[in-house]
Structures
1.
Amino acid sequence: MYKFYYFQILFFSLLTLSAYSSTGTRLLRLPTSRQDEVVYCESWRFSVETNNVENWTTVPTRCHGFVQKYMTGPRYQSDTYFAAEPALDYVKSLSVSNDGKDAWVFSLDDTLISTLPYYELHGFGSEVFNKVSYNEWASLAVAPPIEASWILYKELQRLGFSIFIVSGRDEYLRNVTEANLISAGYTHWKKLILRGHSEKGKLANDYKSSKIKDIVEEGYRIRGVSGDQWSDLFGNSIAQGNSISQRTFKLPNVMYYIA
Amino acid sequence: MYKFYYFQILFFSLLTLSAYSSTGTRLLRLPTSRQDEVVYCESWRFSVETNNVENWTTVPTRCHGFVQKYMTGPRYQSDTYFAAEPALDYVKSLSVSNDGKDAWVFSLDDTLISTLPYYELHGFGSEVFNKVSYNEWASLAVAPPIEASWILYKELQRLGFSIFIVSGRDEYLRNVTEANLISAGYTHWKKLILRGHSEKGKLANDYKSSKIKDIVEEGYRIRGVSGDQWSDLFGNSIAQGNSISQRTFKLPNVMYYIA
């Protein structure tokens, strides 16, 4: 323990020195030479999943291998369980009315269905997003389900929730998206909301929150939101006037950020 | 790649079976036998840092070793850097007025100063929080600085920000808290806000958001919030009427949750 603090003090002194010797525009330097790649990439992932970083376009070069391993090994799937299981615990604690107005909002890609087959062909987030090639892939309607979300979806339906799916996909993909949802095992959603022509320029936060507002204005009580992007989850608190009793559940996503 | 999908399909089938064979109250089961401890604890940590789980009282038994290793090894410190560095990048992009009304809000414990010396003596979050023994330790005023936050703090002051420190500590700890802040290298904060007698029963979310509201009502523009609890960060969006352009920066904390 004492050894640890001596290291801390030494480290802090070094940092302070380097901070004051800099030109002043950037005081903080990550001690990269002291960090191995795994520590760096785990921390990068922390900053992504907490929304500390915004508007990033590609996975940092030194984390390409880390993200591939994370996505194809057991960790990604395990993390999706840790988004669904607390939701199931929470849902158990709710009393659901029989007026059909208790609602849950899901995002689509990488929340209900997985784009991993696409990203496996495109470097797991190491390439800049290409909407044309992504839409082509989406048209194939082959995205598999994310199991943890599928189980939550089925349980919510069993309990009488109305399910809304809010996606940033363009409206012209409606038929293939419905076909994909069905082939992935999802049925009887209340509404699948896609991005109409007039909403094409909107930022995800604005688009998602306006759609969630519409749902609330139709008289639904949104009891929870599951999404892989913070724009999915912030939209909820905006639309709900920040009622913090409403819960949000973040699915992991370290392959892309939607602004 | 194909091998991976066969595994997924097999796994999904098994899950579906187990889901339907249950009595219905709990459909989702984590495949614990398939997960090693590290995968489980990394996922638990993901669910904590994203606020997927709320109101947890102690670190799960199987993750005691994981949390100790995380806190005393390089990862915790590295994660604090990934809360401060995006904040420094963001701050660079702001134009700061010379009216002194641009403000930043910091939490105290495990944001500006570290309670790790206390938790090292108390099982790194494996014991239920004991306020009496914690307050005794706080009275010693020996909490060291969290270096990344210290650098951010100094840079914000250099740029002309007013700094508010909002803590859930009780008012009677004011003198020792100020002494601790100074010995940890922090000076010239605008206000240190502690929990008064009338606020003792308040939930952290309500307490923090009402204090942030007060700051806004005094004419300050809160440009960012750094905190290790989601209640620190949600308070901001509540008080600001959810202006999503305001940024929040989550510091890691896997030792305790403040409700």
2.
Amino acid sequence: MAETGFRPIDGGLLAPEGFVASATAAGIKPEGLDMMLLHSQAPTSAAATITTNRFRAAPTYVTERNVADGAARTVIVNSGNANAATGPQGMVAAERMAELAAEATGVPAAEALVCSTGRIGIHLPMDRVEAAVPRLAEALSPENAHEAARAIMTTDTVPKECAVELELSGKTVRIGGAAKGAGMILPNMATMLCFICTDAAIEASALGGALREAVARSFNCISVDGDMSTNDTVIALANGRAGNATITDPDGPDYQRFAQALTHVAEDLAKKIARDGEGSSKFVEIRVTGGDTWHQARDVGRAVSRYNLVKTCIFGEDFNWGRIAAAVGASGVPVDPARCSIAIGGITAFSDGQPVDYDLEAAAEVMTRDEIEIHVDLGMGDAEAVCWTCDMTPEYVKLNAH
Amino acid sequence: MAETGFRPIDGGLLAPEGFVASATAAGIKPEGLDMMLLHSQAPTSAAATITTNRFRAAPTYVTERNVADGAARTVIVNSGNANAATGPQGMVAAERMAELAAEATGVPAAEALVCSTGRIGIHLPMDRVEAAVPRLAEALSPENAHEAARAIMTTDTVPKECAVELELSGKTVRIGGAAKGAGMILPNMATMLCFICTDAAIEASALGGALREAVARSFNCISVDGDMSTNDTVIALANGRAGNATITDPDGPDYQRFAQALTHVAEDLAKKIARDGEGSSKFVEIRVTGGDTWHQARDVGRAVSRYNLVKTCIFGEDFNWGRIAAAVGASGVPVDPARCSIAIGGITAFSDGQPVDYDLEAAAEVMTRDEIEIHVDLGMGDAEAVCWTCDMTPEYVKLNAH
């Protein structure tokens, strides 16, 4: 990875200097860790991207307001309850969570951000939240990255962590992240939470720009079931402890290198979410080339990644490329079938507008793999995009039935 | 039904005077009826609506071109092969089907329409089609409505037929229809085929207007899996045999009454498709009231009908109204949650922006029913729309895996 300028490291969310976290079982879920507290020991630049769902949860309003000034030092999170569609009482609860977290970490309430994930339409058991926060405050430590990643899980089967380091103006800078999400996953921030810490020195506006770009090319390129959630939030906190020359210029080389590393962390976590899709048995990468623009290629990739009939035939290990054609055609992008090509696992089935003969045995073998690569070429321009999803299985339906 | 001005009758597609049809097993499917021929014994006014998928099948181009002059007397249909993503060879096959059908029924080739449905990306076995058409021509009869409805089925478990009669200018007019479709069903004409015959006398432009309106409020309001197909086509043929005063004025009372009856036939067939959704166990009606416009209410209804997590919890008999809220919020319509209400089976769970207490036992009972009614009030205006779908089951996934 020499040419990319960053290296993977251990330590997850807390790999950067000057961040602490803790996790506890507050009793919001029937069992297991369900609350997380994250805190920066120094002032930060902060940025967030939030779901566009009109029924978005109360905590997303608190986070949006408190991050608006580009500073936040504490994040409090619960799993097991989304605090969405909970009306004014839900807003009171979300504000109270921010207050509790701020008090516990010695910062103003306006420096605390709040996230919730879980069932929609149920009031949070605030007595349990109130009782848990002092425990969380006491347990804050730079050693708790793994517990923090576990505490935000709902139907996830594995925690999702990633960290990298890179050199900026002669200093070593670290970026660490943790994410959760397995169902109700659709680009545009859909329930998916991600927290990214960095000890880089970067102005809030530059951090926000880098975060939006990273989210567009990572979390907004995955789909598990095409359902946009009420709670999705990505938060980035940068506390400057690495001592690099503060990044301010979005055209400068330090910004570019930081943004590239941040995008890598986000993409890695996004792929881990797609890989852990509810009930899934296979991971699917959809590469779309030949678009006029990146957005066009991305829209085609997203359409394929959301098409239930593509996802079911991948589960069934059926080399049914015709369903990919149908999904491309339904994407809303003005593709010309006569210029399109479609391949699965490197085997071209449709080229320049016509089906082509392929080796049936090789095609059958490709479909048995755990990772399936779909390649669509639109034959229009030079832009390309990559999207990720998983197959759809009977287990997905069963898991979401109750 | 006195106030609606039309009455249900027997006879399906061939209930109107002057239409004949036939069905045969051509060998395109491994077994069973897979070709249908429909013919009007008199010249017609004709209209069609066709999928917007960019990868739409070759026959849709032939049908679009041949119906453009508002006249067509013969329709040839095969199931088991979509003739989509088949390039120039597919176009040649579709043109040949039109020629064969026209010759067999003694009309110009430009009076024949063509539909295909089935697997995408495989060339049609034209030798079998050629061999079957003479058999189809010989068997044409006004008695074959039921066989015709069966011959167009793919994964459908039951044929879908409907017919009504009404009085126009002192004459009895009949409208009959047959439809197929069970998977890959999404509004915007998605694989769903429907053929509607009427002995009404109506100009082609008036018929086209009535058909577009009927499709908007019927087939474009159903969803099985949200996947738009390559082949969807609705064709209406009117041969004037009823002898009513020809309908020309779309503002006149005869047009209104005819359009209302046509919409009823389309809606009845659309609901039969949703009810027969692949692997489904429950039928779901989504009524959205309080929209500013019909389109807005319809968009919310469609969003709910497409949301996998709503469809899975209906399968699981879980009164999970929060997922309906998430779907409403993700619809793209600028709803205000504070003015929304949500009820399932008459039990209100969310009202004016807040969750409300409801009887848990009654809620559990509602979810056990075979037909689930979801009601969303947007609290904005007076417009309303109704959409239909089915639950999503493990059987849906298994059925579409291969």
3.
Amino acid sequence: MQIEDLKSLLAPVNTKIVLLVMDGLGGLPMEPGGKTELETALTPNMNKLAVEGILGQSCPISAGITPGSGPAHLSLFGIDPVKTEVGRGVLEAFGVGVTVKKGDVAARGNFCTLDANGLISDRRAGRIPTEEALPICEKLKTIKIPGVEIEVKHVKEYRFAVVMRGEGLSPDLEETDPQRTGAAPLSVVAKNAAAQKAADLFNKWITEAHKILKNEPKANGLTLRGFATDPGLPTYKELYNLRAACVAVYPMYRGVAQLVGMDLIKFSGETPSDEFKAVADHWNEYDFFFIHIKKTDSNGEDGNFDGKVKVIEGVDAAIPELIALKPDVLIITGDHSTPAKLKTHSWHPVPYLLWAPASVRPDTEVEFGERACMHGGLGVFPALENMPLALAHALRLNKFGA
Amino acid sequence: MQIEDLKSLLAPVNTKIVLLVMDGLGGLPMEPGGKTELETALTPNMNKLAVEGILGQSCPISAGITPGSGPAHLSLFGIDPVKTEVGRGVLEAFGVGVTVKKGDVAARGNFCTLDANGLISDRRAGRIPTEEALPICEKLKTIKIPGVEIEVKHVKEYRFAVVMRGEGLSPDLEETDPQRTGAAPLSVVAKNAAAQKAADLFNKWITEAHKILKNEPKANGLTLRGFATDPGLPTYKELYNLRAACVAVYPMYRGVAQLVGMDLIKFSGETPSDEFKAVADHWNEYDFFFIHIKKTDSNGEDGNFDGKVKVIEGVDAAIPELIALKPDVLIITGDHSTPAKLKTHSWHPVPYLLWAPASVRPDTEVEFGERACMHGGLGVFPALENMPLALAHALRLNKFGA
């Protein structure tokens, strides 16, 4: 059954669903015979939910495939990320809080170092630190091109985002990074006639930018990649008739949530408790809350096993605040695995806990961990099934057929 | 995610993968409450790998479907055998070591018995034994048809393979077996105009063959089926950027491996140890080794439970020779099940063991057997996922999306 078919089954009820995503939750033991990060963490509250609920392993894309954060979240939101591509430029822009609307063209920018002949000698400008790159980005913001509005924002180190807004722009543009040193940055080339206007405008902007950069010691050039526009995804309201809200500290995840029509809840602080309080403050306004915890992933990427354990324990300690709201469905999972052992995203399936007092069929597992989830009653299933499972356990889906 | 997408994710690393296929590995208990062949076998080495690795059940085609050896191996190789048909004639020819190239037409031949009116009285020529059929096949080899080269080779009992090579041949031909007694063998009929030339040539060959056979007491007729040519499958190099080699005793499996571009490693002997030594001798030349063990299946087909147990124990005893090579990924599985209790291939999912010290997420299982695999962390999964899993655990796949 296809996801789009859910629309015809939606029931008009007022149950509430909470999706708590600990980014990169899945892990690995550091030593043979050892435990994973989640298995090591003391999680009495999540273990209680595991007793009362059901566990399983969620597969973000398909067997063996390691997802980026964008595709992994789209899967959890019920949108097939293989069929629906969200361009890198759009994710990069949303990641720093720059909105990309349909018809805007966003790109990822890299500063690079050019030699005396204008050839690239370092594709990442010596990985210049953020504090050096920020003032350079400020200078780029001064460029004006008649007929369009341009927004530039620094991302991290040598990376920035640029978004062009105006009439008749198409994102069908070739990237300007020659992907090697010893070659000059390429011009922006239109992939078709409709994109010629955007190509010309981006080339004008690049010419102006190179004038500004020419005396920089390292970042005296730039390349643009991942030209893209808002992919026009269906919204949570359209797909599921849910008033959905996002509580996330990092802009990237707020961006993906916006792409599917979630409202952003503003709040101060960045602890799990701060995030859960933001949910509590808006409890009556929404049917669905997506809560994103970033630091499980950051610690995994850093190879910091103990740090990741501590983040998980911090989330666990705050869980009673969520339970006190009496959600009808609480799902605790990750978007993908980021084992500290591998220091990067991985393909391993993701621990998944579904708690729904009125409707769940509990399995026999008594704690939340990778190996418990391997024995969980939900088995291994595609993350695309997250939303049908959530809606069903919230009693929001009518019967299919007579 | 489609398998063809893996190409864009391939990472240029030098890790090594070994796929050890024990043909027909899956089994059944002979008595209620009993153990299967694999559970009965003493396999201390594979049990150690089970402790360190992860288990699961591989489904060759889909639930309830019993595969032939060709489709079952294609699945393990990552090629959907339902979408990609390899004609029976091609498999039969490769099975006896006859190569079929693009444009050649291969067919399976059956000897049959004709009555005085030329009608089939026995579609399998009384299942004449191999020693009677071999000299008849020798006579058929003498037939010459101008303009084409013809190769005939005996397979087993009443079965043989015939391959025609020449210009402008098409395999779109109807089979000549009327599928019942009391009817005459049919002529070869072209399914379209382009196949008329091949039809005429095969009919000429059949006419000559019947002249030679006419005084045989049992095999005085023949039928041809499964006309096919090389399906032009993508190679391991194209699909996975793997230098792949095959170590197999039986021609059929070397044939399937050749169809996906594997090199054949020549070696003497036919024990597991002989096969593993062949791998060791060529360890530096390849990234991927497919090792095929036939006798698990042969004993299963013969209903020889104890014989199959002994073959498995023989493989286990040689496993340290493989481990000594330090593969990054070792997968031990079967292509399908051949329970001695059923004396034939079956649809039951196949025990699957994945060992990869740097990247595997171990489950809680401590021995390699059907019931341990039912509780394994990989769950039940399509055999088509074997290659994505192998590549991922060898750290040969980049991240999908940002």
4.
Amino acid sequence: MMTVTTVMKRLIPAVVMTVLAVGAAWAQDTKYDAYYYRRATLFDKLPIKSSDIVFLGNSLTDGAEWNELLDNRHIKNRGIVGDIVQGYIDRLDPILRGKPKKIFIMGGVNDISHDVDADSIARVTEKLIVMIKQGSPRTKIYLQSLLPFNNDVRMWKLLKNREYVVREANVLLEKVAARQGVTWVNLYPLMVDGDGKLKREYTNDGLHLMGEAYVVWRDMLKKYI
Amino acid sequence: MMTVTTVMKRLIPAVVMTVLAVGAAWAQDTKYDAYYYRRATLFDKLPIKSSDIVFLGNSLTDGAEWNELLDNRHIKNRGIVGDIVQGYIDRLDPILRGKPKKIFIMGGVNDISHDVDADSIARVTEKLIVMIKQGSPRTKIYLQSLLPFNNDVRMWKLLKNREYVVREANVLLEKVAARQGVTWVNLYPLMVDGDGKLKREYTNDGLHLMGEAYVVWRDMLKKYI
């Protein structure tokens, strides 16, 4: 027969576990925005195959139809508007489970708008690459550079005077790619004007891309697909 | 030799034309939001083929990866977050040019948030269908119902107390489908709870869909693909 004390002792860990679990679920629901969880729950339903080419990214990836642009049905769009590189890590499981053929990474500009510096962006991106290599060693990884933005078109307050962070991050990301033995895809020179800003004709809000810019990006990727 | 008056007479229409053209370009740039034009300029670069199945819609269409959900590479996502049915009409050209095999239409909830009534939604949707039939007579058209929303999850001020407009619009849209001889796809009953709201587990913002809801939608569409 259990004493009250014994029952209490057995119950306390269960209560603590429940509190922790509820806490974790709550944290899970609020770490990112609602769109992140809608896309992530969709991606959980969409199996990745070993013949797939995954485009892992933020709004720049999300906004295009990559399988159409590159005429390749194996390309899977895993972009989420607003996502940061840690967000990619947190949704890596359903991608790595499928052991895709290739993963193209594009990310970091939302980290900049969250006041993250170039060093930290390079660090979290390297962590992402290491996790992909560990989880799916045969996946070929392509690290794409950050793109310039253009605050003359529309002011993104959170990016104000942070053009230099993009340039610093790209220098560090290229080193990460070399160190990790992954392919560096430098899109920055294709998108930048003489003043270090995103070309005016490639954007209508200073940050996101018009169709014409996606064609330029696509042409750059053709040789890697 | 031309007199000054003759020159003036010849110039005036040119000036008027220029003013009109600039006016049209300006109107074109401001009628919808920046994302609309980014997606529309992308779609202009992506040819539609006669084997294609076009998903024409708003954020509900935009947010999913339909070719993955339905395992069909002919499906082309032509969804734009925030778009209204007139917006679909204004970007119909590059779709009809390709004479697609099928077009699935989903739209109207943003019209409701713009204070448009059920009659007007049915009218503009019928106009859209008539234009598709005229521009591409062999395209098979599927008109999908509006989905319920749920203002208990998060208040969408512009949709407040407008649940009845969805229900009214669906009654009218079903009649439009019958009158135009297109297939009516009634998704509403799959998504609604006992109180006439979008099922709580299908959304995290009361309007947009979680992965699980897309699977339900997908299962409904399978027989039409």
